[in-house]
Design goal:
Elements (H helix, E strand, L loop, with lengths): L1 E5 L6 H12 L3 E3 H11 L2 H11 L6 H11 L9 E4 L5 H13 L6 E6 L2 H17 L10 H15 L2 H7 L3 E5 L4 H17 L1
Parallel strand pairs: 1-3, 1-4, 2-3, 4-5
Helix pairs in contact: 1-9, 2-3, 2-4, 3-4, 4-5, 6-7
Length: about 200
């Protein structure tokens, strides 16, 4: 089962991905984690990434795709994987398709958690206020201004990825504003449809 999770920051992708990992025994692959692991392992692509990062640059799509290509060859990803936070752009989505085609693989599903972004910002503001009231530090991601910036970046760069997969008939939209367990059930039924399809 090869999946992609799409949706703005705070939509609940991490929570839902963790549940799929637990139920189906496939790894959740975050490009940030994979990048750090490749650099730490000193793989050829990891060394390329390190050179770019050390110079203060952004790692190119080519390097990210190379890292994803290496990672999905590992034994734990043979049954499948969840890509979280990737692809972020149309170019990455096209490059990912090309790389998977080259390996004779295809995506089983692309799940988009649809959320009301105004309510999402309210939810983050509330979470930040609750943390402050409890005397806890506010997570950097829960700072409303930081969150709004991330949301703008998502709307500018990543929101175009969903229509790309929709055109290919691979996208399933899930209402991410429902209770967590309801969202999980909707995802599971979408996955069983895919398995039957």
């Amino acid at each position: 089962m090869r999946l992609i999770f799409l949706g703005p920051p705070g939509a609940g992708k991490g929570t839902q991905a963790a549940r799929i990992v637990a139920k189906h025994g496939i790894p959740q692959l975050s490009t940030g984690d994979m990048l750090r692991a490749a650099v730490a392992a000193g793989t050829p692509i990891g060394q390329k990434a390190k050179a770019v990062m050390d110079a203060g640059g952004l790692v190119s799509d080519e390097i990210v795709i190379g890292i994803v290509a290496d990672r999905i060859e590992e034994p734990d990803a043979k049954k499948g994987f969840i890509l979280d936070g990737f692809p972020r752009t149309l170019a990455q989505a096209e490059a990912l398709d090309g790389m998977l085609d080259g390996k004779g693989l295809k995506l089983d599903a692309v799940l988009e958690l649809k959320v009301d972004q105004t309510k999402l910002v309210d939810r983050i503001v509330k979470r930040a206020e609750e943390a402050k009231a409890a005397g806890q530090p506010v997570r950097k991601d829960d700072d409303p201004e930081v969150f709004k910036t991330r949301l703008e970046a998502y709307n500018r760069d990543t929101a175009v990825v969903a229509p790309y997969y929709a055109k290919r008939g691979q996208l399933t939209a899930i209402d991410g504003m429902q209770p967590i367990d309801t969202v999980t059930s909707a995802i599971e039924s979408a996955l069983s449809e895919t398995a039957r399809g």
